[in-house]
Amino acid sequence: MEVFSVRHPHCRYSTSYCFSHRGTIEDCRSFFSCFVFKHLHFFYYQGSEFSKELVQTLAERAELEANYARGLQKLSAKLFRATKDLSSGTISNAWHFIAEDMEATADTHRSIAGALADELVRPLKAFVEAQHKTRKNVEAVVDKR
Question: Which of 121, 112, 115 is nearest to 55 (CA)?
Fold first, then answer.
């Protein structure tokens, strides 16, 4: 891979770089089209990598939310069993209320996990895969030229 740092005689730009230009620089248009394509490719690749990381991070977050919801649900069930045997009174009612709150919180986190997976992770993953296919097709066309 060659790196060119030249001033082409017919160009008004002083310095430009071409990272994989095959052969010599024939004219400004081919030089700058290669230069522009490589920069666009670089930015596109960065965006693609960011999108993949974002999908992975959101999927992990959805998994964490689901695990947290399961943990709260188990704790809530234990607390319900523990308060069931107590005689009704202020302490029993307070712990029963806490168990109900834990169950409601677990339901909220479960719905957040589902929403993250259904509304963010799956569509973003499909978008990343579609963009990857498009990029491969464009790169194949460019490599043929």
Answer: 121
Mean pLDDT of 57-84: 95
**At a CB cut-off of 8 Å and minimum separation 6, what does 37 contact?**
142
Q: Judging by DSSP bridges, how do beta strands 16-18 and 4-6 pair with one another?
A: antiparallel
Buried b (16+ CB within 10 A) or exposed e, 104-140: ebbeebbebbeebbeebbeebbeebeeeeeeeeeeee
Q: CA-CA distances (angstroms) from residue 55 to 110, 118, 123, 126, 130? A: 19, 12, 9, 10, 14
Tens-place pLDDT, residues 120-138: 999 999 999 998 898 888 8
CATH 1.20.1270.60 fits 45-144, yes or no: yes
**pTM for this model (two decimals):** 0.67
